[in-house]
C-alpha cells in the first residue's frame, strides 16, 4: 500500500470516528429536548390555573417520551451502520496488509 492509499484509509477511519461522535451528540440533543419538554409540561401542570395551559402541559409530557424514543431508535440504527462501516474498513485494511506482506515474501 503506498502513502496515498494509507492516507485515504486513515481519513476514512477518522471520518467514521467523527460520525460516531456526531451520532452521540445528536442523541444527547434529543434527550435534552425530551427533558426540557417533560419539565415544561410538569411545570405547566403544577403552576397553571388556566385549562389551556394544563392541556398544553398534558400534551408536552407524552411528546417528550416520544422524542426520547425517536432519538434512541435513531441512535441505535446509525450506530449499527457506523459499526458495519468500521468493520468493512478493518477488513479492507487487513486484506491490504496481507497482500502487502504476501508481495514482499514473493519478491
TrEMBL record:
InterPro entries per UniProt = DUF202
- Name the residues that span the membrane: 27-47, 59-78
> Where is it chiefly localized?
membrane
One Pfam family cited in the UniProt record for this chain: DUF202
Protein keywords: Membrane, Transmembrane, Transmembrane helix
DUF202 domain residues? 18-78
**Which superkingdom, per the lineage?**
Bacteria
Subcellular location per UniProt equals: Endomembrane system
Membrane topology label: Multi-pass membrane protein
Specify where the region named Disordered lies, as residue ranges.
88-107
Q: Which GO terms describe its cellular component?
A: endomembrane system
UniProt keyword S-adenosyl-L-methionine, yes or no: no
What is the protein name given in its UniProt record? DUF202 domain-containing protein
Q: Which organism is it from?
A: Flavimaribacter sediminis
Amino acid at each position: 500500500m503506498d502513502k496515498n492509499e494509507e492516507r485515504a484509509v486513515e481519513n476514512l477511519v477518522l471520518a467514521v470516528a467523527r460520525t460516531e461522535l456526531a451520532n452521540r451528540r445528536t442523541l444527547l440533543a434529543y434527550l435534552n429536548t425530551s427533558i426540557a419538554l417533560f419539565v415544561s409540561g410538569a411545570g405547566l401542570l403544577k403552576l397553571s390555573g388556566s385549562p389551556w395551559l394544563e392541556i398544553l402541559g398534558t400534551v408536552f409530557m407524552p411528546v417528550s417520551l416520544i422524542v426520547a424514543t425517536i432519538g434512541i431508535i435513531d441512535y441505535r440504527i446509525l450506530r449499527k451502520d457506523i459499526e458495519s462501516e468500521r468493520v468493512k474498513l478493518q477488513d479492507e485494511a487487513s486484506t491490504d496488509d496481507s497482500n502487502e506482506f504476501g508481495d514482499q515474501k514473493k519478491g
